[in-house]
Write a structure and sequence with these properties.
By secondary structure, the protein is α+β, with helices and mostly antiparallel strands. It has one domain: B-lactam Antibiotic, Isopenicillin N Synthase, Chain (Jelly Rolls). It is built from 8 helices and 12 strands. Strand 8 and strand 9 form a beta hairpin.
Amino acid sequence: MSASTRTIPLVNLSDFENGDAATRAAFIKKLGDAFHGIGFVGVTGHGIPKSLIDDFYVAAKKFFAMDTDVKRNYEIAGAAGQRGYTSFGKEKAKQSKVADLKEFFQIGQETPAMSADERNPDVKEVPEFMALGRRLYRQFEEKGNSLLQAIAIHLELPEDYFSNFTKDGVSILRAIHYPPITSEPASAIRAEQHEDINLITLLVGASAGGLQLQNSAGEWLEIVPENDEIVINVGDMLQRLTNNYLKSTTHRVVNPPRDQWHKPRLSIPFFLHPRPEMSLNVLDSCVTADNPQHYEPITAGGYLDQRLREIGLKK
């Protein structure tokens, strides 16, 4: 794919983490412009080992290949899908009547103070699944914080503005399995159009295509990550905090052409969340005569709770 046909801009995180002042400034501007203009960006130079990502994909495939009865042992009552396994057909987009065509496993934050019950369940049939997942979680958390640091500078906030709230935040690493499609879906697609709830999402290339974003003209554009590129998008929390200055763009995962229905799809997003007490009250600097305040005050925890009910994960 040539640069001219790319749907989303591309930045190199190493420019920010290791560059001189001018290189860092150019990165911050490019990232800020991308998040303001289209809400998505591709990131290379992130340093997350490809072997770790590949090994986690293999382990996740092994987990999802198990019998449903075995997977259900890892479904945690009362966790609202925030830890462990969520079986097929439970989650839907907030405006949709039909559940998405997927099952998933979520790995949540772990801190030394947590009891065994509060931690993620270990999968005894595939022990490497959680071992690799915990390592990947920390890598994503670190790189996500670098990107948020750049965004804080772009917004003229203190450099550590977000990291003060994301330490021990309730971020989620989610392994999503879209099984082969065996019969004509009742209007459902693999993941109906939606916006993410969190601050930013980091997504390593899926095992099959289908990810699309909706641009400001309402057209659906395919996102095709290249090589080791991670796709990053703005979530609703960051859009809310910046009073719509940074865009939480609608996206979806469409079904493949009929001749590829037999192919499953595996996708690994990391949803970067702050701690529940973080204020999402609109930043004063983002309220202007042209852009009056669009949102009521709320905390990150209050907002997350509201959204989990809308998508059917919390009763």
